[in-house]
Amino acid sequence: MKPLKADLMILFITMCWGSSYLFMKMGLDSMGAFNLIALRFGLAFMLAGVIFFPRLRRVNLKTIRYAMLLGFILFIMFTALTFGLKSTTASNAGFLISLTVVFVPLIHTFLFKKKIEKKLMVSILLALTGIALLTIQLPFAFKIGDLFCIAAALCYALHINIVSTAAQKVDALSLGILQLGFTGLYAYLSSLLLETPVWPSSTDSWTAVLVLSVVCSGLGFIFQTIAQKYTTATRTGLVFSLEPVFAALFGFWFANEVMDANQYAGAALVLLSVVLSSVDVNFRKRSAMKNRPVALESYSAEFK
C-alpha cells in the first residue's frame, strides 16, 4: 500500500470518528459508560472475528501481547474521554482531546530518539491554532473534566505510536481485531464491578451502539492498524487533527449547529496543515537535480 492510500484510509476513519460524539451522547442516555464501551467494542470484535476467523486461527503470542496492551490503552482512553465529556464543556473537550496532534510527535521523539522535521513542526503549529479557533469558546474556564480529556489525548497519542511499531512486527489485521476484543473485555469487567450491564432499551440506543460498533470501532480501529503500517505516527496524528472539523460538519448537518467566522478559519488552517505535511518542500534537493531526469516518485511526499 502506498502512503497516500494509507492517509486516505486514516482520513475515512477520521470522518467516522467525527460522528462518534453524537452517537456516544445518544448511547449514554440509556446506559453506563463502561456498559457502552463494552457493547461498542465487544460487538465490533465478534463481527470482525466471524468474518476473519481463518486469519485469527494463525495468530501468535506476540500479537496477543500487543493486542492486550493496545486494548488496555484504548480502554483507559475511552474511560477518560467519557468522564471528561460528562464534566467539562464541549469546546474544552474538543480542543484538549485534539492535543493528540502535539503529543504524538513528542512521545515518538521520547521513545525513538528521532527529531521532528521542520515541515511537520510547522504543520503541527498550524493544526493546533486551527483546532483552537474551531473549538475554544471564551472565556476558557479550566474544569476537572479537562484533566480527563488531556489524559485521553495522551493515551491516544501513545496508542498511535505503539500501533506504528507493532504493525511492522505482527499481522496488522489480527492485531486490529484482537485489540477490540480486549478493550471490550476490560470494559465489561469494569461494568460488572461498577455498573449493572444492560442491553440498549430503545431504537435510538441500538442505532448508536451499532454505528459505534461497526463503523467507529470495527472499521475505524482495524483500518487504522492496517494503514499505520504504511505511514508514520506523526502523519497519522496530523490527519486525525481533522476530527474536530468533521465533528463540526456533522453538528451542522444533523444538529443545525452553525459555525462562525473563527471556526471556518480554524477548519481551513487544520486542512492546510495536513496538506502542507504532504508536500515535498525540499527545494535545495530539487535545485541540484533540475538538470537531471527525475523520476515521478521524487515529487511524492516523503514518509521517513
UniProtKB/TrEMBL annotation:
It is a multi-pass membrane protein. Its main location: membrane. Residues 5-135, 144-278 form the EamA domain. One of its GO terms (cellular component) is plasma membrane. The keyword Transmembrane applies. The chain crosses the membrane at residues 36-54, 66-85, 91-111, 120-138, 144-163, 175-194, 206-226, 238-255, 261-283. Keywords: Cell membrane, Membrane, Transmembrane, Transmembrane helix. This is DMT family transporter.
